[in-house]
Here is the input.
Amino acid sequence: MLYHLLYPLHDQFSALYVFRFITFRTIYATITALIIAFMIGPWLINKLSALQIGQSIRKVGPESHFKKEGTPTMGGTMILLAIVLPTLLWADLSNLYVWVTLLVTVGFGAVGFVDDYRKVRRKSSDGLSARQKMLGLLFVSWTAGVILYLYPPFSTTLAFPFFKGLRPELGLFYIPFAMLVIVGSGNAVNLTDGLDGLAIGPMIIASASYLLFAYLAGNARLSEYLQISSVQGAGELAVLCGAMVGAGLGFLWFNTYPAQVFMGDVGSLSLGGALGTIAVITKQEIVLVIVGGIFVVEALSVIAQVTSFRLYGKRIFRMAPLHHHFELKGWPEPKIIVRFWIISIILALIGLSTLKLR
Here is the structure.
């Protein structure tokens, strides 16, 4: 909005020329998101507490979680507002990629909101059924996939890190592939959101990494130099990534151990969906497995646990997702959180190294 209002006036006021630069708008989108989160946070926490919108804890979970019963949840609404508003304020709103990513972010957030609301209303950890939730996520991701497929400048090739010449053309099959990435990312972040600050920390790191990927993919000269896929217009997603970083930092202020508020599915699904969509648009889908390695491992731990128990009647972990396994081994919650953050930083650096290892 500011870009469209102020940049056209740069002929009269030369200082406004700065709005042309994605880097400038990304920085201020990040700061704006942080300020919005700080402003909304205390009010939202008090409002959720007054409405008794508290977290319901599964009785089969670790005993240390029982004391968290009643902690305000659905704090992800703060994250959504802190992402959407700065993006609308600082991004170029004529950019289709911005709108597609916002569509998934808000769409996944809406599915998560309904799920959280049902949990609160029933005072149970059961919200939407797995089928209902999955259908909602698939519909939103299918819509995004179709829009991208029908958008002429967008390429349906798949890029592999470490192999610059390996770029298969998926054609129509790119739609289900994009759906897999987006839905998988949303669910993986959702499964990771089990400890105070555990999901939001790696999300901030991954968002910062994809901020760089988006900027480079949208810059024809830099993408050619690095031999990565050039996606005209993708650079504008750096503004949205900046808003995600700012929103994440603002939420972490209230979510750090011991948490004053939980993000709920409205936060985790929207963040994961946004990250997956950005990975698809920037043609860094495979790298997401590395950068978002914590989310991937958490999801795989659940799949492995369920598969092993159904086939052999045995559990691989003491409890899944993986962070609960370490809890039951006696690791203090803050130790698990910080160590997962450290691993996320290492994985992000490895993912960024693929920019040169082609």
In short: The two ends are 38 Å apart (CA to CA). The chain has a mean pLDDT of 91. Residues 2-353 form one domain.
